[in-house]
Structure formats: C-alpha cells, structure tokens
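HUMAN: Quick job: go over this next protein and say how the chain folds.
***
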Amino acid sequence: MQNSDLAVTLLFYVLIAAIGAVYSLLGQGGGSGYLAVMAFFGLSPATMKPAALTMNIFVTAGVVFRSIRQGDIDWRFCRPFLLLSIPMAFIGGVTVLQDRSYQILVGTLLLLAAVRLFMQTDQEHLKVTRPGFTGRVAAGGAAGFLGGLSGIGGGILLSPFLIFMRWCTLRENIALSAVFVLVNSMAALSGLLLTTQQFPFEIFWMVLAALVGSLVGFLIAKRYIKQRSLYLLLGAVLIVAGLKLIIL
C-alpha cells in the first residue's frame, strides 16, 4: 500500500512538472493545468487556489524575465490591461466561494482554457488591429477578477480573447500573458492571504516541481517536441477535468 501511495505521489508531481513545461511555452503560469491535476487527485479548494496562484507566480516570473531580456514586451500596450486587473484580481483573491460553487467556476474556466489551447497556432502573420484604451482596461479587469477568484491567474482567459479580436501578434500575446499572470497572481494571492485560508506546506513541493518542469520546457520542449501536439493533449486533459468538476 505504501508503494502504491508513493507511486501516486510521484505521478502527481510529474504531472505538475509537465504542466509547468507546456504552459511556460505559452507564456502562462499553468494555473488551469495545475487545477486540473489537483482536481483529478481530489485536493480541496482550500489547497487548490493558493497552490495554483503560487505556482503561477514562480513560473511566470521566469517567462517575464526572458521576455524582458529579449525585448518582447510592449509596455505601452500592456499597461492598460493591468490597470484594472490588479485590483480586480485582489478582490477575486479575497472572495472565497463555497466548495461546490468553486468547483463549477473552475470547471467552466478549465473548459475555456481548453478552447484556448485548441486555438493555438504557429502562424505569426496576423493582421493586427490595436484596441482602444477602454477596451483593454475592461478586458483586463474581467480576466483579472475571474483569474483571482479561481486561482487560474487570468492569462489563459485573456489570451484567447486577444487572439479572437486580433489585438496583438502571437509573440506579443505570449509576453503580455506572462506579465498579466504574474502581477495578477501576486495580487490575488495577497488578497487570499488576508482571509482565514490556510497555506498548506505541500505547496512548496508543488512549486519546486512546476519550476523544474518550466525549465525543462524552456530548454528542451521547444526544440524537440511539436508544440501543437502538446496543446491538443493538454486541452483534452482540461476538458476531462473541467467536466469532472462540473458534473461530479
């Protein structure tokens, strides 16, 4: 029985690392993927939300650092998205839903995240139409609140909207998503820590696994693995996990 428990534990952390690897290629922290894995393994919402937000912060910090060094971030374009999203993510973090309400919310957002992955394309040549200031502020605020409320971070919600509206190129989308997830996950976690929520110690090991995975994703996956196949596989996993949370 102990060997079985050890195998399950190892599988859990391997999956967390795999999520970190795949999502780092998208400029995401992996919040939706981590929530999917934790849902599969039956973790409680009290653990799921702070764990996802914390892993988001550490993984996207590396992505943002690389994006800054490569000059991929257009700060003039990014700032309006962050203006309202940060306080809204904080409010979402403070707000604690009942277990069933939380499961339905996260399940729905996982399904939307799956749509995001299925929309992923390798084409960089998009006809871009820059949005107005108000549109960027409103989109950021909505994604920030839902991201903070669920623990996803919001980037996986904002990103497909930007692609659908053709507000930026895919390269800009990845850089913006990383910045968005980082700052809003920090805001949401700050709000969460003001509540009576506990901060489980096992989150430390989840963060370590996610960081190792994101490093592997950066060094290996881009060169040796077809990204499209990873997105489709992960999208299928998110659909199963989302339906599991909503139906069960």
Residues 2-247 form one domain. The chain has a mean pLDDT of 83. The chain has one domain: 2-247.
